[in-house]
Amino acid sequence: MYFLTMDEATIGHLGQVEAACQAGIRWIQLRMKLADDQEVRETARAAKKICDAWDCALIINDRVEIVAEVKANGVHLGQRDMPVSEARRLLGDDYIIGGTANTIEDIREHHRQGADYIGLGPYRYTTTKKNLSPILGLEGYQRIMGRLKQENISLPVVAIGGIGMKDALALLEAGLHGIAFSGLLVHAGDRQAMVRSLEEEMIKSLTK
Description:
Distance between the termini: 19 Å
Structural class: alpha/beta
CATH superfamily: Aldolase class I
Number of strands: 8
Oligomer: single chain
Strand order of the largest sheet: 1-2-3-4-5-6-7-8
CATH architecture: Alpha-Beta Barrel
Number of domains: 1
């Protein structure tokens, strides 16, 4: 389970980080698309303290220099951000680097450049991302994961984009490593119960 903070929410980014940690998420991306570098820097420092207290990995969206400054666990790069190879040159091998993908070609290029994981999407329409790439749907994921297996490309792939509670099992059965979400957690009435239910759905894929 991979939680991404969102700009348009009833609680701020740090509140979202705290809520995700309390709910049991252990992999969080600080995604502040509307903020300037200084605001991201200050928020990232505070988020790192929260994540350290909960033994949670903190990934920062896009801002490679800030990742190194606050000693976050890694960076996630969108299709219009810095290339993975350049981020690797700047950060070295001790940081996690993820890349956004929408096609098999995107994944091949990220793999070639040394990405540690892929955020593949969108699964369906989502309001949390502007300039949305073509929607993949379950069939799109199945097709791409099949191609990766044929080409012997071994790279963790996380599904992202409008994912609901009942989507997890089918996505994991398609070969995805995990699922990423924002609103699913932020808008949940009981976040801990939501995470437990999602874990139960994900465990089903291991017992089939």
